[in-house]
Amino acid sequence: MKNELSSLKRLIKKRVLEEMELKTSWDNTELLECVDNEIMGYPYYIPVREKLKLKRDIINSLTGYDVLSELLEDNEITDIMINGACDIFYEKNNEMHRCGKKFESAEKLGDIIQHIVSGHNRIVNESVPIVDVRLPDGSRVNIVMPPVALNGPVVTIRKFPECAYTLDRLVGLNTLTEDSAQFLKTLVKAKYNIFISGGTGSGKTTFLNALSDYIPKRERVITIEDSAELKIQGVDNLVSLETRNPNFEGKNEVTIRDLIKTSLRMRPDRIIVGEVRGAEALDMLQAMNTGHDGSISTGHANNPKDMISRLETLVLIASDIPIDAVRRQIGSALDILIHLGRLSNGARRVLEISEIIYKEDSLHLNTLYKYCYDKRGNDDGMLVRTGNVMEKTYKLQKR
Prior knowledge:
Blueprint: H1 2-22, H2 28-40, H3 48-63, H4 67-73, E1 77-83, E2 88-92, E3 95-98, H5 106-118, E4 130-134, E5 140-144, E6 154-158, H6 167-172, H7 178-189, E7 194-198, H8 204-212, E8 220-225, E9 237-242, H9 256-263, E10 270-273, H10 280-288, E11 296-300, H11 304-318, H12 323-333, E12 336-342, E13 348-359, E14 362-372, E15 382-385, H13 394-398
Parallel strand pairs: 7-11, 7-12, 8-9, 8-10, 10-11
Antiparallel strand pairs: 1-2, 1-6, 2-3, 4-5, 5-6, 12-13, 13-14, 14-15
Helix pairs in contact: 1-2, 1-3, 2-3, 9-10, 11-12
């Protein structure tokens, strides 16, 4: 039966495409009617459930993202990984699954990739084999094409929830405690500069969005990203900036550094940099040190100390500044470091909240909250206060 339905699907698609070529224009109603007629005209019995599935698959193949459409519609799926036309995986409820479906051919997958990137005026091919874009629903898409990708086209999609997570909702999911959430809300309102670190998939962007809910509505906020995925809500005076890749001639590129520099002339109250991974670290720190308190950014690191070291390295790459001056600037610009992580069971947790303090020619982390595992070493721990006294209280005193 399965092979018969696959053959029927190919046959109906062929007939529909032939009919489409005979008409100058089509709308979705006519397309649905044509597919229905072809299915109803099949001389053998097909269960109603299989008919509906067949119809959906054909429509998705002709107008949507083919096999991807069904995965994108499932709100419980957070990540989709395509390793060539025949290998598709997805993460659902913190568990990895292999998809039972595959694309008809590498050419079909290639067509869908071109459809995705064309909507953002970007190019991906053998000459430009790597690109980052986003889908209309905000999902982040990374594409790597042959010859760089040996498996065939590789597409990785990070989906984001339709309803943005709030800190209160994250408390309900045990990502952090009520006490730590109230503490962070106060820090955001008091315009502390916050940096969020963590590994891939630890929830940095989701957490940044949740923190942004407590930015006062009257403020002007500018977001800067490689591929726009932040969903800042409740701020009316919001400007979103996105980088631009170079053209065929290698010109007209707009980098994060360019956007940070121009944002300083746009009268921002706060600047939010989606992710710091290069020389823009220097520009971000300088922006925070020139009257733009309350700014927030994220970065990749395995632990808080590694994040500080990485920031030092990124600034040194950007400019020939003495290491002591770099550390002094980081300590002056950044107030709070929040580190996120994924536990062995896949759950995302706030693992540490620390102050960043410069003293005695070096940077120190004053840990205020730390995730403590239970005595058996399981993942059933919680974020607890350390008892350390907060030193940077001057912004709280100004409120």
